[in-house]
Amino acid sequence: MFILVKRNLKLFFSNRTSVFFSMLSSLISFILYLIFLKSQMLQMWTQIPSATRLLDPWLIGGTISATAVSAVAIALGQMVKDKENHTIADIYLTDTSSFSIQVSYLISAMVIGTLMQTFVYIVMTLVFKIFDQVNLNWQYLPLVILISLLSSLIWTAFDMIFFNLIKNVSSLSGINSIIGTLAGFFALVYMPLGVLPRLGRDIIQFTPTPYVSSLYRGMLMNHQINQSFKNVPTHLLTSFKNNMGLNLNYASDWQHTLIILSVFLIGFILLNVIGFKLNLKLSSVNY
Question: Mind telling me which residue stretches traverse the membrane in this protein (predicted)?
């Protein structure tokens, strides 16, 4: 199984196009922030001291969350390619079980998602340190990696439900383009939560993405929030957290956020187990 994981990782990182598209949503969000969003949001929060030091880590948190969505989807595309090329059929000849093959794709997608999120965090932290003199504590890195692992596992479990149904590579490019575009919206990178209409806010909060963003942002922004809101009325802090997506309808702290993400993960795993058993039954009937 680990030979298959190594093979999947090698195929992904040797393909520059795959690596580029796995970070496309990150690149889009970063450019939009620099050109449009940053100046607009600074105008919204002029009464907050050192607003830039809040908004930069806000963007980093959302961008890392969006990266998980697109990177995992690109990584799992290898599974579809192997189906179409009948590579999986060849792997079966080595007496590798169907379960082991599925797990190898899951592990490789998780590793890729975690590495890409960590890479984006490091790069964006260095960029904002150089241009905005925003210093993020490097002690956050282990926590970033842990959240990246959780996020990658959630999105791998989610994507495998649908990618197991895709039979040809021609469908992948369109699907990945849609996923990459929507990732930024659902991670609340292209616009803050408070700007969206009520229906939009509710729809977004029925996905894992804003909760992962909230975890990242709560951690990365915590120190600066305490500094910036030290002499600011409490209602302004509450308004900031609500509008910027740090407080969500169903989670106002990291404990509740983790509970909700765990529910998503368990639900996706159960759906995968059901789908796997159905596929085995169908295969045995056809055989």
Answer: 20-37, 58-79, 99-128, 140-163, 175-196, 258-278
Q: Which of 64, 29, 67 is nearest to 191 (CA)?
A: 29
The pTM score is 0.91
Q: Give the C-alpha separation, 156 to 116, whole Å.
A: 14
Provide the residue-wise pLDDT of the chain in tens; the chain has 287 residues. 788 999 999 999 999 988 988 888 888 888 888 888 888 888 888 888 888 889 999 999 999 999 999 999 999 999 989 888 888 888 877 878 888 888 999 999 999 999 999 999 999 999 998 888 887 778 899 999 999 999 999 999 999 998 888 878 887 878 888 888 889 899 999 889 989 999 999 999 999 999 999 999 999 999 899 998 888 888 889 999 999 999 998 887 889 999 999 999 999 999 988 988 887 676 555 54
CA 181 to chain centre: 12
Helix 98-132 crosses helix 24-32 at what angle (to 10 degrees)?
20
- The SS3 call for residue 249 is coil
Q: Can you tell me the distance from the alpha carbon of 129 to that of 152, in angstroms, rounded to the nearest whole number?
A: 27
Nearest partner of 153 among 186, 206, 211, 113, judged by Cα: 113
CB 113 within 8 A of CB 148: yes
Residues 6 or more apart from 181 whose CB is under 8 A from it?
Answer: 25, 28
Tell me the two tokens of residue 96. Answer: 């590798």
248 φ/ψ angles, rounded to the nearest 5 degrees: -115, 165
Task: With beta carbons less than 8 A apart as the criterion, state whether 54 and 220 touch.
Answer: no
